[in-house]
Amino acid sequence: MSDSPARYRDVFGVPEFRTLFSLQTLQVAGDSIRTIALSVQIFERTGSPAAAALVFAAGFLPYVAGAALLLSLADRVPSRRLLTGIHLLRLVVTAVLAVGGLPLPVVLALLVAAGLFAPVGGATVQARLPALLPGDGYVLGRSLFTMTSAGAQIAGQAAGGLLLAVLAPAGTLWLAAATAAVAVVLARLRLPDVPARGAPGRSSGAARETWRVNRLLLGDRTTRGLLLAGWLPISLAVGSEGLAVPYAGGLGDPDAAGLLLSAAAAGMLAGNLVVGRWVRPELRERLTLPLAVLTGAPLVAFALAPGLAVACALMAAGTFGLGYELTVQRRLVDAVPEEIRGQAMGLSNSGVMTGQAAGIGAAGALGEVLAPGHAIAVCGAATVVACLALARHLRR
């Protein structure tokens, strides 16, 4: 392994990476714009906060089902064909929603249909990165995807709010559809026609093959440990973000929760930037366990009820440690055969998504019986314990 970190010009010098990077940015920004516009549209029609919240969550709810039933497609279908089809589905769904006038159950069904394939598309992209960016280039490429996804989501939501004032929900939805149309063209014309990675001749259905490979991945001690190392610290630590509003309320300013969450986002971006670009590969390997512990350790100090400035610093310090996940993903890529790499990446990502939802829910329940600061401290302590229990897989 080279002791020099990869450079941005190295990864952006690969044409297919540039295309995949553009597709990811278009998807995250477009879906963020679609979600906020549709939530506003539904609220204006129904006057129901519950309906608006349900629409907001509907794109994420089927993520687990897609991961359980369809992930094998990431290895069995050529990436250009699969990504073109997924972005075409996004285009059709968004355009139909932009037409408007649909009953709420139909709106939800369309969002679920698009959401089912979200983990498959992500798995397909992530599985291509190791082939395009060998060695340390993979780590830098993945860090770029993480940072850009967060940035595109924030920018998409902010832009969506501004666009609603100018274009109204229907016009904003058509703009989201336009981003999907650009993605379709990019995927079809700019991606190479690469054969599928999966073993030839396997004719079992997508669901059966997905279950088979998931059992294989979770049954192997090494891959199971790496998957858990990627899931548990993040899931336990992120529960603290679900308590940002009550904690800020306890400080006398519920609106300050935005500052806490912004600090958490800034810490994550900084961690991926520093760990992915500036830390030497060998040092990054040695820092994996300390960084994982860092995701939870600062949160323990919330038991002392720090003020807003210190609380923001603690949040940022904790999420900086999320850079540990870059090394875990690199090890997972090395541990699985190429023909199931897409599903392995998809299972890893889906577990993180599911775990974060569960972590936030558990933290919210804990906040019913404990003061918010104490509940956040419990999240931090649980994270540290999980990291120590998984030290064999986090330490190199």
TrEMBL record:
Is Glycosyltransferase tagged as a keyword?
Answer: no
What this protein is called in its record is MFS family arabinose efflux permease
Cross-referenced InterPro entries: MFS (IPR011701), MFS_trans_sf (IPR036259)
Q: Which organism is it from?
A: Actinomadura algeriensis
Q: Where in the cell is it found?
A: Cell membrane
Q: Which UniProt keywords apply?
A: Cell membrane, Membrane, Transmembrane, Transmembrane helix
Give the matching SUPFAM superfamilies. MFS general substrate transporter
Q: Which domain of life is it from?
A: Bacteria
Keyword presence, Transmembrane: yes
Segments spanning the bilayer are 50-70, 106-125, 162-187, 225-245, 257-279, 291-317, 371-391
Q: How does it sit in the membrane?
A: Multi-pass membrane protein
